[in-house]
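#struct-pred
JK: can someone run the complex with flavin mononucleotide? inputs below
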Amino acid sequence: MEFKELITKRRSIRKFGSAIGHEVLIDILKEAQQAPSWKNQQTSRCYVVESPEILESFRAAALPSFNQKSSANAALIVTTFVKDVVGFNDGTPANEIGNGWGSYDLGLHDAYLILAAKNAGYDTLIMGIRDAGAIREKLGIPENEEVMSVIAIGKRAEDPSARPRKDLTEVTRFF
Ligand SMILES: Cc1cc2nc3c(=O)[nH]c(=O)nc-3n(C[C@H](O)[C@H](O)[C@H](O)COP(=O)(O)O)c2cc1C
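RT: done, structure tokens with the ligand placed:
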């Protein structure tokens, strides 16, 4: 898909018809790894829940009911980052942002991921409203990783129109 078309056509999808095959998921995850990161430290991590048996109980434990409903039929990718690495020099924050840089890198990674998914013919929903404690316990995520988002991925079963964006002049200043 043309890049401009990709950007224009991506939407958050809240109704999925079917999940995604394992091999395509691998391709998308590899493309997401091409995102830049602080000193190329690559602290972004993915936990992919694709088995239908696990998905049902995982969704119930990890998500509020509205996000459970929106992500029905989709596979789920939990994204985390390893703390105290990116943005740190020998354990000392390089500047005032600290672990915000790990979060920044993961955001870039996830942006690549949702665009790679779109390019492969799949759609996504990033969910920040989730139960991090339940997710950590269910997937055995270590304490040195920060649990961030749960990304639903699958074939869309709705065609929402584009959500409005602020005028560029409201969010940008040129000097
Ligand atoms: C960090 C982040 C967290 C989000 N969390 C949720 C969520 O928990 N549930 C949900 O339905 N949408 C969630 N969204 C989706 C946004 O509502 C959506 O991206 C926004 O309304 C713009 O719509 P668009 O993605 O279709 O352009 C989240 C998006 C981001 C980037």
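RT: quick notes.
Residues 3-171 form a domain with the NADH Oxidase fold (CATH 3.40.109.10).
The first strand starts at residue 16 and ends at 18.
JK: thanks, will look after standup
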